[in-house]
Design a protein that fits this description.
The protein is an alpha/beta fold. The protein is built from eight helices and seven strands.
């Protein structure tokens, strides 16, 4: 594995499990020193152990990133420990399923708090450091739900769509100072949360998988590879981009196909 991030300092939120964990491990493998966050202490400690086993450095800071003081403390911890901050991966998100007409105020606001407010708090704090440094890369995790609607995900889709606006504004306001911001839009990814949801579907996961162009879910390592690329200087001209990573889902027309599928 390349060491594109040697000497860099990276912060990842919601890094205890799933996509965040895979991204934190990948950034560490590529040489970055990590500051990692999760609301749950135990998975956070576990991922720090895994990073240290790889020979990396990990500073854990547990807490709910929707509380403004947590993202601020994460950025402060990075600067205090390492004197700089190069990469911020705003990965926390929350999806609560309900049709819009049955979405409570509390659920709507919570999805925005975890999915958008938290990223704003971290971005604002990080920009103050990165603008002084004249460098930095911010990567936000949105979702395919920000690219096209599906029923029962209105709060989640709206919050993830707002993340695209935050990312684009971050990019254009700070590009001249050597700072980039991009947002990834994963399709369905094999994470504990998703696998659990699929297991509960009538007929299990298989019909759902078969409806995907690649006939499979995304893997957390595939998401981590994109995040590491966006974090690194290899993506130096990619700025303000909303990048689908979904095996072709967002490229596929949602209307029923007119012609039969070719055989696999
Ligand atoms: N899994 C998918 O298929 C998928 C697809 C598209 C986008 N995403 C997005 O990717 C990101 C990660 O999703 P995931 O499926 O890997 O995991 P997840 O959403 O199930 O949770 C990952 C981690 O986030 C932590 N967390 C939850 N709320 C938090 C908070 N307020 N503050 C700090 N940590 C918190 C959890 O403890 C957990 O360890 C989310 O933003 C999600 O919306 C996931």
């Amino acid at each position: 594995m390349s060491r594109r991030l040697e000497g860099r300092v990276a912060l990842v939120t919601a890094a205890g499990t799933g996509i965040g964990r895979a991204c934190a491990l990948r950034l560490a493998r590529e040489g970055a020193a990590l500051v990692v966050n999760d609301i749950e202490v135990e998975p956070l400690e576990r991922v720090c152990g895994e990073i240290r086993e790889l020979g990396g450095t990990a500073l854990p800071l547990a807490g709910d990133v929707s509380r403004p003081e947590i993202p601020a403390a994460l950025v402060e911890a990075a600067v205090e420990r390492h004197g700089r901050l190069d990469v911020v991966h705003n990965n926390a998100g929350l999806g609560i399923q309900a049709p819009l007409h049955e979405t409570s105020d509390e659920d709507w606001l919570r999805q925005f708090a975890v999915g958008v407010d938290a990223a704003f708090f971290a971005t604002r704090a990080a920009l103050r450091v990165m603008r002084r440094q004249r460098s930095g890369s911010i990567v936000n995790t949105a979702s395919g739900a920000a690219l096209a609607a599906e029923p029962n995900l209105g709060g989640y889709a709206s919050a993830k769509s707002a993340l695209l606006g935050l990312t684009r504004t971050t990019a254009v306001e700070n590009a001249a100072l050597g700072i980039r911001a991009n947002v990834i839009c994963p399709g369905s990814v094999e994470t504990p949360t998703l696998l659990q949801a699929l297991a509960g579907r009538p007929g299990g996961a298989e019909p759902y998988l078969q409806a995907h162009p690649q006939r499979r879910l995304g893997r957390v390592e595939e998401i981590a590879a994109l995040v590491a690329f966006l974090a690194s200087d290899e993506s130096s001209h990619i700025n303000g981009a909303a990048i689908p990573i979904d095996g072709g889902v967002s490229a596929q027309r949602a209307a029923p196909a007119m012609y039969e599928d070719p055989p696999d």
